[in-house]
Amino acid sequence: MSRYRLLPTPAQQAVLRDHCGHARYVWNLAVEQHAHWHPGRASAPGYLEQCRQLTQARAEHPWLAAGSQTVQQQALRDFAQAMAAFFDPQNPAGRPSWRKAGRHEGFRIVGRGRQWDVRRVSRHVGQVWVPKAGWVRFRWSRAVPPGATSYRVTMDRAGRWHIAFAVIPAPVPAPGNGQAVGIDRGVAVSAALSTGEMLHCPALTARERRRLRRLQRTLARARRGSNRRGRVRHAIARLRARETDRRKDWAEKTSTGIARRFDVIRVEDLQIGNMTRSARGTRGDPGRNVRQKAGLNRGILRSGWGLLVRRLEDKAPGRVEKIRPAFTSQRCSACGQVDRDSRESQAGFRCTACGFACHADVNAAINIAAGHAVTARGGDGVARPVNREPQLLLQSA
Predict the structure, then answer these.
(1) What pLDDT score does 59 carry?
(2) What is the DSSP letter of 174?
(3) What is the DSSP letter of 112?
(4) How far apart are CA 363 and CA 348, in angstroms?
(5) Are strands 357-359 and 118-120 parallel, antiparallel or unpaired?
(6) pTM of the model
(7) Are 212 and 130 in contact (CB under 8 A)?
(8) How crowded is residue 366: how many other Cβ atoms within 10 Å of its Cβ?
(9) Which of 18, 142, 177, 332 is the most buried (most CB within 10 A)?
């Protein structure tokens, strides 16, 4: 999907905001209709029935009729596709949920040549036709893919408008050198490669972090609904967007470089959602070290673990292998000994058996590249575990 920065005028921004509100309103109505269904009750209306209901609603409500019918019907079509994906066992997806103002701002337009078109007006400026808004300028940072048949307009929390043309890019070709690489993801080192490279995901600078903390304290003192609170929230959103942009840029460049250099890419099969779950607990069973766990969760999410692997799978389909992560950081990549005492510190690894020493993350990445999977007792699950004392075998009488 090719994404560009949209540059609407103030009048066009008002129209785009109305489109976002109408699309969100229609989507939430469809979610509410399906939420009322339960076994024994008649099925919720499908796409065609919802379109007929939308026509009736537009006739009864002038504010809804003032919007674009194309935008509103496309929201219903997107909802129908989301429900089909939810019930498709071959394409597991989450159930469509509510969309919130200020967080889910966007709409989609299909039908190139009939409902929309795109043209280039100068070296760095292009224009796209949006219903009810006319020709809207966008930054021509690269050529628009010729096969695009639809686009999606979105607005992030920082108030920036973007347009994304729906085109599936071609995968990155494999180099054909037969090399495999292992990637160990961490917090101190975002991604350590088995080649010895250690990559760091860029974040906010120290000055930007200080400004963010100052803005957060100001936001806590601001009265809800005040103009001051709105300005502070917008300033915080701009800083967050800057951090997100840096993380996405790093993930795109890093994933492209790895896909071009190696034929096989091996990563740990981490359950990031479970790893970043809150440790707060309940009122009856409160958690422990909640603040420390919250800081670890922020560090994991800030490192872009899931984003990096997702982009690798998109750019190198069929070449990304997921390895079971058990004991990859405790196994010696030289002799295979599994011992927790070999991990001297966060960055230090020295094998207690052979004395091999290197960076702990690089050692884990080498194990991942080799595809080593160890059992809970150690070893590779086939041979006898190497970190157990010899046991006497009971002879049957």
Answers:
(1) 94
(2) P
(3) B
(4) 10
(5) unpaired
(6) 0.83
(7) no
(8) 24
(9) 332
